[in-house]
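Aim 2 progress update. The chain analyzed this quarter is reproduced below.
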Amino acid sequence: MIRAVVTGTGSALPANRVSNAELAERVDTSDEWIVERTGIRFRHIAAPHETTATLAADAAREAIAAAGLDAGQIDLIVLATATPDQTFPATATKVQAALGINDCVAFDVAAVCSGFLYAVQVADSMLRAGVHRRALVIGAETFSRILDWEDRTTCVLFGDGAGAIVLEATEEPDGRGILSTRLHADGRHNGLLYVDGGPSTTGTVGKLRMKGKEVFRHAVVNLAAVMGESLTLAGLSAEDVDWVVPHQANARILDATARKLGLAPEKVVVTVDRHANTSAASVPLALDVAVKDGRIKRGDLVVLEAMGGGFTWGAAVVRW
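Predicted structure tokens:
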């Protein structure tokens, strides 16, 4: 049996870290208002020379090094992003070139905040099919470029960054690897979280728009359900979980989802306070933090989950 095993993680953040107090100097808000409603205290904002591709490449280099590989051994790159460097070609190909890989399959996946989970399932399927051996799966965003900085209800929520993992096809995984994935989408809710522009509609990039209360309600229900589905698919239950690495959108969503599943809060990896919502990058960023600080250890059962615009949502169960 071939299974995709995580052998390395990496992350990258822009150098510019912006506090709530700094943000309050340009937007009608306050540290207290933001923390109370979201749990966010800081976010990283990309400088003009930092792009989705440069952040993705830096995170990829870390993940490749952690896996003990050379870049040339990667034969598949799947990059999840809603903020590509260009309309085309795929940002994944820019990362490929930056890593010095002359030829490998490289493409983008667009599922907004759930993009990393979608990318994981795509790469997992391709590895298990025997088509590829080693994959880079990346979530990378520069959401600061599509924010309306006059809308205090949205601009305070997001940040920029990238996270990456290396997946390797292993024939004797010793119980490790991706045990199950479960994805969903429901396009009826487009108007609750979207960008008001695009090449074929307005010919512009557009700005992010969101109805926060409605998104919150859907997120708690959908995330708890999809985590339960993915655990059932793997023949496991919430009691078996060592760590949940969720999409870092809002501290209250994280708390409510954990309660709905009956999970202890200390099992949930939280980085929303320091990174804010980095969309497709948030799950791999949080995962890398928990791996580097020693919380996630070999043999641990880890559940990844996210929900984003579309709506799209998904979860994956991974034995570390």
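Residues 171 and 215 are 41 Å apart (CA to CA). The mean pLDDT is 96. These observations will guide the mutagenesis experiments scheduled for the next reporting period.
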